[in-house]
Amino acid sequence: MVEISRRGMMLVLSSPSGAGKTSISRRLLAEDDDIVMSVSATTRPPRPGEIDGKDYYFYDPDTFAEMVKNGEFLEHATVFDNSYGTPKKPVWDALDRGQDVLFDVDWQGTRKLRESAREHLVSVFILPPSIDELERRLKGRGQDSDEVVAGRMARAKSEMSHYAEYDYIVVNDDLDASVDSVKAILKAERLNQERQTGLVDFVRGMGVEG
Questions:
Q1: Residue 1 included in any domain
Q2: Does residue 4 fall inside a structural domain?
Q3: Which of its termini does the chain have fewer beta carbons within 10 Å around, N or C?
Q4: How far apart are CA 108 and CA 125, in angstroms?
Q5: Rounded to the nearest 5°, which phi and psi values hold at 130?
Q6: For 29-52, what is each residue's pLDDT tens digit?
Q7: pLDDT, mean over the chain
């Protein structure tokens, strides 16, 4: 099989809570060696069992602020007095190696990534098959009170209103089919002419000038 070198892409998966984004992400990471999870940076202290560089990059507030000042993040935000961000260098290094980087961010994070790296970004929004099914899934977890579920449902409707900002939409009625759909998106985007950095040399090697 002919291999043509390529530059990786930034694959964003977004969805309301309960739509299946996490399950799809786990399957992609387990079944595709050419995709890695983006690791965020944060100023919050590590929780028990968390590993620096694997779960998060842990920085003190001054270091984080200096990185922001130097433009070292693709996106960043402050949530509940802690700062979070996506460092550029590990992402660029992965893309240069031909690896794709998976991002688990909401529509606001996706907007920021689009502003800073649109040419590398492929965005997918995961929708539930129905609002009733989404509520059933959230209640079926058995982890949240009715009040918390109601809050998640309200946020879900707000999040889903931004679906049109994404390149692709996958309705997660069946997990296996949804994983296959995202894999198909990956396969097609990997063949994008602009990402195939070795294509010109490959074609010229056949005596073709273009």
A1: no
A2: no
A3: N
A4: 13
A5: -165, 165
A6: 999 999 999 999 999 999 999 999
A7: 94
Could you tell me the CATH number of the domain that includes residue 39? 3.40.50.300
Q: How far is CA 73 from the centre of its chain?
A: 15
Q: d(Cα 193, Cα 204) in Å, to the nearest integer?
A: 15
Exposure letters 121-131 (e unless 16+ CB within 10 A, then b): bbbbbbbbeee
CA-to-CA separations, 65 to 54, 141, 156, in angstroms, rounded: 21, 38, 32
Q: What is the pTM of this model?
A: 0.90
Which of 86, 102, 91 is closest to 34 using CA atoms? 102
Q: Does 5 fall in a domain?
A: no
What is the Cα–Cα distance from 73 to 79, expressed in whole angstroms?
Answer: 16
pLDDT per residue over 117-169, tens digit each?
999 999 999 999 999 999 998 888 777 788 888 988 999 999 999 999 999 99
Largest Cα separation within the chain, whole Å, is 67
pLDDT attached to residue 19:
94
The residues that bridge with 122 in the sheet, in sequence order, are 11
* Residue found by looking up tokens 């399950």 in the block: 23
Tell me 161's DSSP state.
T
What is the arrangement of strands in the sheet containing 57-58, beginning at the earlier edge strand? 57-58, 41-42, 82-87, 73-79
